[in-house]
Amino acid sequence: MAPQPTSAVAARVSTPSGLIVGIPEGSRLVFGRGPDADLTVSVGRGLSRRAGVISAVADGVWIANISRTHALYTEGEGYRIRLPRMEDSSEPSGGWFLHAGTTLVGSRAMLDEGQALSVMVAGQGAGWGIGADGGRLRPDSDATVLPLYLDPMTKLFLVALMWCRPWLLDPAATGPLPRTPEIARTALEVTGAYHELERFDTDQAYRDRLSARVAEHIKVLRRKITERGLIRADVRLSDEVVVRVLIEHGIITAADLGRLNDPAWCSRQEDLWWTVQEA
């Protein structure tokens, strides 16, 4: 979903030509050389047609490489970070989270030649790197690491949130967790996709297809947790274990439930789920 100029701007992107694009909170901007990108970068030597995505969230911006062929970098005072390439067609394997301040984004050639994009978030501060292992890392000597970051502007995040919601609402964790079809149905319900909800209830093939996609997202969450070493190798990854890991490590928090009351975020998620049959 391209940024809308009438919404409150959470971040700004400046191009080498002087163009300034605002990104409202809850939206994302895809940039690259191709005409199908939200922001076409004509000077992007070494840049893919769809090179990267900048997502504006409540506490900053998330920058990720969405190319499977080209490298992408972020650069600021004292750091130049190579963002991991996409491993498959689902989710970026890493990225850069900028809480405040400014960072440069582009190919190596763009950075070396002073032709990079400039991403600015109001205030002063440093970024948090997220490497291929998914840990969020300060670019200073303190090196505080968080184990895993999920982009709120993805279906993976909504699946994780719906999975965790019962235990976020009940910290005692006394209730059962939703199964795959329940997660799929709730995802449509909370995003206001009522037209799809009716189809989910009456069309078995559609219900199975959507539930299967949720199951794939759950598989991705299990894989990420294993790859990050968030549990011992001998621990079985039951639903309860996965949800407990997501909550205890702050990957999904009670504050994230507030997104369900954010019309812009719900609209973005509805767009994602509306096109699921074509994904």
Describe the protein:
With 279 residues, the chain is of the alpha+beta class. It has two domains: 9-146, Tumour Suppressor Smad4 (Sandwich), CATH 2.60.200; 155-278, no CATH class. 31% of the residues lie in helices and 23% in strands. It has seven helices and 14 strands. It has helices spanning 108-112, 155-169, 180-190, 194-202, 204-227, 239-248, 263-274; strands at 9-14, 20-24, 28-32, 39-40, 52-57, 60-65, 72-76, 79-83, 95-98, 101-106, 117-121, 127-130, 136-137, 145-146. The strands form two sheets. An eight-stranded mixed β-sheet has the order 4-3-5-6-9-12-13-14, with no helix packed on it. A six-stranded antiparallel β-sheet has the order 2-1-11-10-7-8. A hairpin with a 7-residue loop joins strand 13 and strand 14. It is globular and about 55 Å long. Mean pLDDT is 81; it is low at 1-6 and 132-146.
Could you write a compact summary of the structure shown?
The chain is of the alpha+beta class. It is built from seven helices and 14 strands. Helix content is 31%, strand content 23%.
